[in-house]
Amino acid sequence: MSPCNFKRSFKKILNISFLTETQIKTLICDAEIKGKKVIIDKKVISKGSYYRTRNQAIQNIVRSIMTLAVISYHDIINPNDVANLIIMISSLIEEDIDTQDIGLTITRFIKTKLREIK
């Protein structure tokens, strides 16, 4: 599977993330820069649009990671639980599980961990 072609379950979970499909494609697909244009996933876009989308994606990723750092620092969720959650989500996507099931599994996992707070 090409890095620019996503599984159905990945596309659906991407819809509930802080990244858009365009942002993720900007980060992972090969971009060919030709003058003031960029070709990405067989589409031609302006260089300015490419860099703006790329920077927005990076900013969203940084904010998400900082949110994880804040909740880990304040013992809202254990850093090991964050790692386990990422592994669990990755395996659910690989198995092409329905997004609603992925969302329910993630929600249950987080609520269980949040109940464990002192």
Overview of the molecule:
The protein contains 5 helices and 3 strands. The mean pLDDT is 81. The protein has 118 residues and is mainly alpha-helical. It has one domain (8-115). It starts with 7 loop residues before the first helix and ends with a helix. It has helices spanning 8-14, 21-28, 47-73, 79-94, 99-115, and strands at 31-34, 37-40, 43-46. The protein is elongated. A 3-stranded antiparallel beta sheet has the order 1-2-3.
Structural key phrases:
single chain, 118 residues, mainly alpha, three-stranded antiparallel sheet, 3 strands
Count of DSSP strands: 3
Q: What number is the mean pLDDT?
A: 81
Structural Rg: 17 Å
Number of domains: 1
Unreliably modeled segments: none
Put the structure in a nutshell:
64% of the residues lie in helices and 10% in strands.
Annotate the secondary structure layout:
Blueprint: H1 8-14, H2 21-28, E1 31-34, E2 37-40, E3 43-46, H3 47-73, H4 79-94, H5 99-115
Antiparallel strand pairs: 1-2, 2-3
Helix pairs in contact: 2-3, 4-5
